[in-house]
Amino acid sequence: GVITFSGEDYKLLGVDLSELSELERALEEAGLDNEIPTLFIAEVVLTYMENRRSDALIQWAAEHFSQACFLLYEQMHPEDPFGRVMQQHFSQLNSALHSLSQYPDCEAQQRRFFEKGWTECSVMDMNEFFACCTPEDEQQRVQALEPFDEYEEWHLKCSHYFVLTASKGMEPSWTPLLSNMTVPCHDGPVRVAGSITAAACAMHSEISGLRRYGHHSVLIKPNVILTTGGFGEEDGQHCRMRNFHVLIKHAGYWKAGSVKKENPDKRWDERLYHTVSCLSNSVALVVGGRTSPSSAGLGMLWLKFPETCNASDPGDITVALVKIFAFVTYQILTSLFTWLSFSIGEKYLFLYGGRSAMEPVLGDWYFLHTQELSCTVIPVEGPVPESRHSHSACSWKGGVLIAGGLGAAEQPLGSVFFLRELEQSFQWQTVETYPSLVPRYSHTAHVHDGKLLLVGGVWFHSSSVPGITVIDLMTGLCLDYAINVEHLEWPLMLHNHSSVFLPNEKELLLIGGGGNCFSFGTHLNLEPVSLSLSSILTSH
């Protein structure tokens, strides 16, 4: 039957869209004239129908209206990690997405409309739509609506939805998605130089406590990894993580050590997105982070641990964390996503970029004297990098390498800078990469043997996900490697993760990662993953 809400210029009909003769009759009775220009809008509708029925509807619209436009908005890219989580969400709701198997991407959807009788068709994903078709003042209005920093999930969601416009018989032709392209939009697919196979870590037993994101994992001594903070699974529930976690490698296997806090009255403040830098084999410094998007500015913490571990009996290694005490430092050390590195003979910690509760991106830097924890002014020359957060920083040759990040317009950056040590000062230098580095953020980074390794992250090329990128710092050669995840039984999301590189074994350990998507729920990577990089790091 047809349920009609009828007003002067508005009619609402309830019809089964797969019964085209019934649809036609209902529209005719409602007085629709199919000779005048008609706009069809399908906002996540067709994908819930079987493909042969939705195809028939698209073709029917083209055949029965002499001047028509069709606007379609729905999901795509079902097979990458975010796509798998998205599909799982809809399956759990018992409303599977039918279009995805036959029309998995923009190109397939565009072909579909051409084949069904539409003469013009343009399509783009929602990251591109937001950057290219949304006026700048509207972008800024939306970005300022509320405290928000779940950029990764927002951009991943947008890369899994597209908007398509098709038309026929329209003069002049109707292609609104191409009208005001002021932003250079994304090129073709990323060229992949090869792939690296991901394997579950060699563990003594299943290790709990590492299903988290926004944490920080750091090698505090050979074969000992300390993980602090983040959001994840603790005591059977999702929360900001209170417990520290230690992984210890012994005889080729990783196992969880027990963490004893020497001063249990000093509680970890449950921060996320902080950094931890080892200043010696018994001290690490925690800087930055936030407890919520509007409460940054947490001051610094010392973490202290014994200089030696009892390696003869690995079954009973405990790492004692001594005196976690907070400094009330200058306002400057309160950025949200501060990435650190050391320089000048390891006397200074270099703090660069990030964001604060008030400033969406920061572009300033500080040299922190590690003994007194005071800021030292050291002159810096050269072209200043644009402000950013969620970038990476690594120490190299007494200086610092900064790569990628999210810039002021919430667009990923593809620049790499080297802060080079001179006699009495430092100098920013741009590192040119060939081909150009695909812009990204929320990745991690390591330097090995003159090569910068970028791990995971988020970029706007929706046809693939970031794997490992290797930049040769001598020649600028930039190679992208995909991560082969066929041996993992769960989707590996490489953002908000930590990674630890073991140079002797050329092994990369991926710890945690994932996020909380406002549409599809929380995804946490189930266990640490190991990548052997020896094949891509061998000197030629």
Automatic annotation (TrEMBL):
Keyword Lyase carried by entry: no
Superkingdom of the organism of origin: Eukaryota
Pathway the protein takes part in: tRNA modification; wybutosine-tRNA(Phe) biosynthesis
Enzyme Commission identifier(s): 2.1.1.290, 2.3.1.231
Top enzyme category: transferase
Pfam family, one: Kelch_KLHDC2_KLHL20_DRC7
Keyword Methyltransferase listed: yes
GO terms for MF: tRNA methyltransferase activity
Enzymatic reactions: 7-[(3S)-(3-amino-3-methoxycarbonyl)propyl]wyosine(37) in tRNA(Phe) + S-adenosyl-L-methionine + CO2 = wybutosine(37) in tRNA(Phe) + S-adenosyl-L-homocysteine + 2 H(+); 7-[(3S)-3-amino-3-carboxypropyl]wyosine(37) in tRNA(Phe) + S-adenosyl-L-methionine = 7-[(3S)-(3-amino-3-methoxycarbonyl)propyl]wyosine(37) in tRNA(Phe) + S-adenosyl-L-homocysteine
Key words, A-Z: Methyltransferase, S-adenosyl-L-methionine, Transferase, tRNA processing
GO biological process terms on file: tRNA methylation; wybutosine biosynthetic process
Gene3D superfamilies per the UniProt record, alphabetical: Kelch-type beta propeller (2.120.10.80), Vaccinia Virus protein VP39 (3.40.50.150)
Stated family: Belongs to the methyltransferase superfamily. LCMT family.
PANTHER family, per database record: TRNA WYBUTOSINE-SYNTHESIZING PROTEIN 4 (PTHR46529)
Protein's name according to its UniProt entry: tRNA wybutosine-synthesizing protein 4
Organism encoding this protein: Pelecanus crispus
